[in-house]
């Protein structure tokens, strides 16, 4: 995975470098290592896929709010489409696994958000409501970019009969790659107009979302739930 599509002074370049160690931890963490090997226990993936479906609803809402805050028509279209893809395209992926695992609408609706999922969704929605457009872009970017990087890494070493092949192919695919490149470019454009203090808040948002990416996968691996 490259450090970004922008020039050497682009926000994305700097943000990726600052969080490179965190990404390496995510890439090699047990959940993703076992997912790539095809040895991840089904109950762990099932936990993940249900929570991820819940997460995508909140993520879609945050993207819709980013569309409302976008400073130009192209941005409105880009983020509106991203929100649609989060709800329609990615949920179609989840739906395939839901059928395989016998997870019906009532089971999904009756499964509460875990602390990690609730934290991540709440963080993105808080940023969507309270932060300016450029900071919101930085908070949303890791979900795109880290998934693409992890998907590419796993795709390069996954065996053809990996039981999670549909997940791998989605995030290593060309369509998702185009969405990621577009999100990187949009974030870099927003950063160009940002003040030094706003750019610093963008870095804080990117780092926090990166931490939450790790927490989400780690939570699924540990089957973490509310302690009371």
UniProtKB/TrEMBL annotation:
Keywords: Hydrolase, Thiamine biosynthesis
InterPro entries recorded: Haem_Oase-like_multi-hlx, Thiaminase-2/PQQC, Thiaminase_II, Thiamine_Salvage_TenA
GO MF entry, a single one: thiaminase activity
Enzyme class, first EC level, given as a word: hydrolase
Signal peptide: none
Recorded metabolic or biological pathway in which this protein acts: Cofactor biosynthesis; thiamine diphosphate biosynthesis
Record's protein name: Aminopyrimidine aminohydrolase
């Amino acid at each position: 995975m490259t450090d970004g599509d922008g020039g050497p002074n682009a926000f994305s370049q700097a943000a990726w470098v600052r969080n490179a160690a965190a990404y390496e931890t995510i890439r090699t963490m047990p959940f993703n290592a076992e997912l790539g090997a095809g040895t991840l226990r089904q109950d762990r993936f099932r936990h993940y896929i249900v929570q991820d479906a819940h997460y995508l609803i909140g993520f879609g809402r945050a993207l819709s709010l980013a569309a409302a805050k976008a400073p130009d028509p192209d941005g409105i279209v880009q983020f509106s489409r991203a929100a649609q893809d989060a709800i329609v395209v990615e949920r179609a992926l989840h739906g395939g696994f839901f059928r395989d695992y016998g997870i019906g609408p009532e089971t999904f609706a009756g499964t509460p958000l875990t602390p990690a999922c609730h934290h991540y969704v709440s963080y993105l929605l808080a940023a969507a409501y309270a932060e300016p457009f450029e900071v919101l872009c930085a908070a949303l970017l890791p979900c795109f970019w880290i998934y693409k990087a992890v998907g590419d890494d796993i795709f390069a070493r996954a065996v053809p009969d990996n039981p999670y092949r549909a997940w791998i192919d989605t995030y290593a695919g060309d369509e998702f790659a185009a969405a990621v490149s577009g999100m990187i470019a949009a974030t870099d454009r927003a950063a160009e107009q940002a003040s030094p203090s706003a750019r610093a808040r963008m870095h804080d948002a990117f780092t926090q979302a990166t931490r939450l990416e790790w927490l989400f996968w780690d939570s699924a691996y540990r089957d973490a739930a509310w302690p009371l």
